[in-house]
Write a structure and sequence with these properties.
Radius of gyration: 21 Å
Distance between the termini: 16 Å
Strand order of the largest sheet: 1-2
Structural class: mainly alpha
Order of helices and strands: HHHHHHHHHHHHHHHHHEEHH
Shape: globular
Helix content: over 70%
Length: 490
């Protein structure tokens, strides 16, 4: 049984800096995930390796992040959230130092796998905010923390492009190493260790089973386009994922202290929130993937703008700024109408953004407008998801439950990447001897992502309503959940 939830009030500089420091960690995590993207076209030449090997600098981070997020979330609930958060940021920083010191592709892939541990930063931070903040401050802080994913991604691309353009590429990793070390020190100094614990023995077998199943699943999804969707390797990976995850599910139901409480996860308020997270992750990620390719397409295609990678990053920057500015607004909507309404509204706005993209994807200002509208919807949706989880699970399981929710977003993003790639490859035509996606392919990708966003909206509206509505009753409901520490509806 978890210990009582403390309610802290700002008292001194450290308490006042808790939210900014945690937000800095979230932004830094997102920056670390995106800084390698501008390097991908040149890494084969810089490392003397093949494009296929270079792609693993992205795949390794995706796989390790997906595996470690629920595992570190559970460890945070058991052993201390600040302790595990600091360790995750430290692993991310060590990985950055390894990248700065080496040009060997094997070392770079290993380092990027270490950096995947940082994917647990956001769910751990959200759990700390629940433990340490009073209800009236919690909503806006959680919304800001959720938005850091988009803010960091929007900042990371142009920052990395600028550094690579004017300095040696290793300089970028030295810079991120310094930022990572700053983040570790800041968290250790400013963030209190929460006394909330979920005691028990760590489910090592469950962690290994989840890791094996997710690696098979996500490796098959991410590499299906290169290896062939019907190839023996891909079918074997999917079959392996099905068998391993089925055995893992059976083990979790039998374990007295499971890694993931599946009985809690399948309850409508939690399970539908996870489904909505997967669908929203799919819809959101297509925006970044398609926008970057579209504006960099050669002018010979008839629609491309042939922008540089720096200009491409700047096109996505308004979306990141919008996410920062709108996070307090999303918190107010959740307080007034409930987080499921905020989630449904966000998914609907994402669909509207893709409608804008379908109407006009030739003019730069319309491209930026459509991308920003999608970012606006993502802000609303991503800020509501952790609030839904916080209100539906016991205090002692917030980090692991939010870790699973982030995992579902990651799976959605991986599937989105594979689906968008398949659509664009199928609708390509040669330009100057090189296959380039046709505009029709991009429009189909927008339509697909918009349709998924509408399904996410329907899933959000299917989530059972809050026990109380309105700002006052919502705060009262959160206070009650803090006292009882039992999921709503039990």
């Amino acid at each position: 049984m978890a210990s009582p939830v403390p309610i802290s009030r700002p008292n001194g500089l450290r308490d006042r800096l808790t939210i900014p420091v945690l937000a800095f960690g979230g932004i830094l995590m997102a920056v670390m995930q995106t800084v390698v993207v501008p390097l991908l076209p040149d890494l084969p030449r810089l490392t003397g390796s093949s494009p296929g090997a270079v792609s693993w600098t992205v795949t390794a981070t995706l796989l390790s992040g997906a595996v470690l997020t629920p595992v570190l979330g559970r460890a945070g609930d058991m052993y201390g959230k600040r302790r595990v958060l600091t360790a995750a940021l430290a692993l991310m920083t060590v990985g950055s130092v390894m990248c700065a010191l080496s040009s060997d592709i094997t070392v770079l892939i290993s380092a990027r796998a270490l950096q995947g541990a940082a994917a647990s930063v956001v769910p751990l931070s959200i759990s700390i905010l629940r433990d340490e903040l009073p209800p009236e401050r919690r909503g806006s802080a959680v919304a800001l923390m959720s938005s850091t994913v988009g803010i960091g991604a929007a900042l990371g691309l142009p920052l990395a492009a600028l550094v690579i353009q004017y300095a040696d590429w290793h300089t970028m990793f030295w810079l991120t190493s310094a930022l990572g070390a700053t983040g570790v020190a800041a968290v250790w100094w400013a963030v209190k260790e929460s006394p909330v614990r979920e005691p028990g023995r760590f489910d090592a077998l469950g962690a290994l089973g989840l890791a094996a199943g997710l690696v098979c699943l996500l490796l098959g999804v991410s590499q299906g386009g290169q290896w062939g969707w019907g190839s023996p390797r891909i079918t074997g990976l999917f079959a392996g994922a099905l068998v391993v995850l089925a055995l893992w599910w059976w083990h979790q139901l039998r374990s007295p202290r499971p890694l993931v409480d599946l009985r809690l996860a399948v309850r409508p308020r939690v399970g539908l929130s996870h489904v909505a997270a997967l669908l929203t992750g799919f819809a959101f990620y297509a925006n970044s993937l398609v926008t970057a390719q579209l504006v960099q397409a050669p002018k010979a295609t008839g629609y491309g703008l042939q922008l540089s990678i720096v200009a491409t990053g700047l096109c996505l920057l308004p979306g990141g700024v919008t996410m920062l500015l709108l996070s307090p607004v999303s918190a107010r909507i959740s307080a007034a109408r409930g987080p499921r309404i905020t989630l449904a509204l966000g998914a609907a706005v994402i669909a509207c953004g893709y409608a804008v993209r379908i109407v006009d994807s030739r003019d730069l200002w319309m491209i930026i407008l459509g991308a920003t509208v999608v970012a606006t919807g993502t802000t609303l949706a991503y800020s509501a998801l952790p609030t839904l989880i916080l209100r539906a699970v016991p205090a002692g399981q917030t980090a692991s439950a939010n870790g699973v929710n982030v995992l579902m977003r990651t799976i959605g993003q991986a599937v989105s990447s594979a689906a968008v790639a398949a659509v664009l490859v199928h609708h390509s035509s040669p330009v100057a001897g090189t296959p380039v996606p046709a505009l029709h392919g991009y429009l189909l990708a927008f339509a697909m992502a918009g349709a998924v966003a509408l399904v996410a909206c329907a899933a959000a509206l299917s989530i059972p309503g809050e026990a109380a509505s309105g700002a006052t009753r919502g705060a009262r409901g959160e206070n009650r959940s803090d006292r009882d520490q039992t999921p709503a509806g039990t």
